[in-house]
């Protein structure tokens, strides 16, 4: 044990240039265990919801078929299960909540970091091996959440500036953050509880600016050694951060609620791009997918396979089949969603026509040649749902080219990228084929 003690003393005597005493320059009297714990409590409630909805969204991509990204996650693989088709708005809820709540918590994350920032400049950074482990978990916690926020926001804005695959980085980054978050909660929960109990909430919220004082010195050194006079109360600090969170929520939630679509100022792909039956948001346009007019012209055919012999149908023949209409949402990983009225042929009717009346799964292929989602595997409950369609029309009009003309898949609770557009082939599979 003598060597570690000598190491701490050497580090203490030789701080890096400019770091000595920097923590003492942060002199706000608001900093202390109580305010830090209030921010921490909000994050303790909100972050698990963001984590859970994020993992559920990954499961919605049916990783058991190898189509969730990243595909190879080793022992971080989630337990396989069939993603439900009821309620139809399930993925719209989980993905919308994941993105909206994640954005709303950003001011809380930054406020929490502000409240503890003097501790980040402590020197030496640790005086024991236990503190080394604690600071390491803190580094992973702070780095992890800032990485998740940055990559998530860039993905929402369609600004792929990463130089790496977003899905892979976001998934593994989430698990790094989860591990650090659990460790941090286990270490700090007793202090959070004691700090919240140390000051009555009602009394603190009624304290005037003139009466606002620093808390007593604490073991973690959060309280400023020489605090300045308060320029705002703790109530005003909480109101400022909470107000910013509500403002971000107001500028985000319109991406998931059709009547508020124009208020989604922070999410360009969640806003209303046009008017008329096909005027709702689109994630990947036909031009971006390199879909040509000749690909969708009179020579287009839908190929159905899996039975004794393949079946080919043109659009006129599909329109002559029994049509079904359903109002279903479509939701994308960026968080936007919309509900529209779709008309087309039930997938289970197409399966029967192909000679596979009880399909276990189906591989749906698109005319799109490139891209991560030019095909998708649908599981049995998605194929057999009465509202699962090969849609030919939307809101009483033919699909536009950007929305998948001549035919696209629409399935309740299915992620938008798996509601394949410009469908050219559906291969139905039985259990013996799996």
Automatic annotation (TrEMBL):
This is Sulfoxide reductase catalytic subunit YedY. One of its GO terms (cellular component) is membrane. One of its GO terms (biological process) is respiratory electron transport chain. Residues 298-431 form the Oxidoreductase molybdopterin-binding domain. GO terms for molecular function: oxidoreductase activity. It comes from Micromonospora rhizosphaerae.
């Amino acid at each position: 044990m003598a060597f570690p003690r000598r190491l701490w003393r050497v580090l203490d005597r030789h701080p890096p240039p400019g770091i000595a005493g920097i923590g003492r320059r942060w002199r706000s009297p608001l900093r202390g265990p109580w305010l830090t714990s209030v921010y921490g409590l909000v994050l303790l409630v909100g972050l698990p919801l963001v984590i859970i909805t994020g993992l559920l969204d990954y499961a919605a991509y049916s990783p058991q078929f190898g189509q969730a990204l990243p595909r190879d996650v080793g022992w971080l693989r989630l337990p396989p299960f069939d993603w439900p088709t009821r309620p139809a708005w399930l993925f719209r809820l989980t993905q919308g909540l994941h993105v909206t709540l994640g954005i709303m918590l950003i001011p809380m994350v930054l406020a929490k970091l502000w409240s503890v920032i003097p501790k980040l400049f402590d020197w030496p950074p640790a005086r024991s091996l236990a503190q080394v482990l604690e600071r390491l978990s803190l580094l992973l916690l702070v780095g992890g959440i800032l990485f998740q926020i940055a990559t998530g926001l860039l993905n929402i804005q369609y600004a792929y500036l990463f130089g790496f695959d977003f899905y892979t980085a976001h998934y593994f980054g989430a698990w790094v953050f989860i591990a650090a978050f659990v460790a941090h909660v286990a270490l700090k929960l007793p202090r959070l509880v004691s700090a919240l109990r140390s000051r009555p909430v009602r009394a603190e919220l009624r304290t005037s600016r003139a009466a606002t004082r620093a808390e007593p010195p604490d073991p973690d050194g959060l309280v400023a050694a020489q605090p300045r006079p308060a320029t705002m109360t703790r109530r005003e600090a909480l109101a400022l951060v909470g107000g910013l969170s509500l403002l971000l929520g107001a500028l985000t939630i319109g991406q998931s609620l059709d009547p508020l679509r124009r208020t989604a100022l922070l999410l360009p792909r969640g806003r209303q791009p046009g008017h008329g039956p096909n005027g709702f948001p689109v994630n990947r346009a036909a031009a971006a997918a390199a879909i040509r007019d000749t690909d969708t012209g009179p020579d287009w055919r839908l190929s159905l396979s899996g039975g004794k012999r393949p079946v080919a149908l043109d659009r006129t023949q599909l329109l002559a089949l029994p049509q079904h209409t359903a109002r279903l949402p479509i939701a994308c990983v960026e968080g936007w969603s919309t509900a529209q009225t779709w008309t087309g042929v039930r997938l289970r009717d197409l399966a029967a026509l192909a000679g596979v009346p009880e399909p276990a799964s189906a591989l749906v292929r698109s005319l799109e040649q490139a891209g991560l989602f030019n095909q998708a595997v649908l599981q049995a409950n998605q194929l057999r749902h009465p509202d699962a369609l090969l849609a030919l029309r939307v809101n009483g009009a033919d699909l536009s080219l950007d929305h998948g003309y001549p035919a696209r898949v629409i399935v309740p609770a299915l992620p938008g990228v798996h509601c394949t557009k410009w469908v050219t082939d559906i291969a139905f599979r039985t259990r013996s084929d799996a």
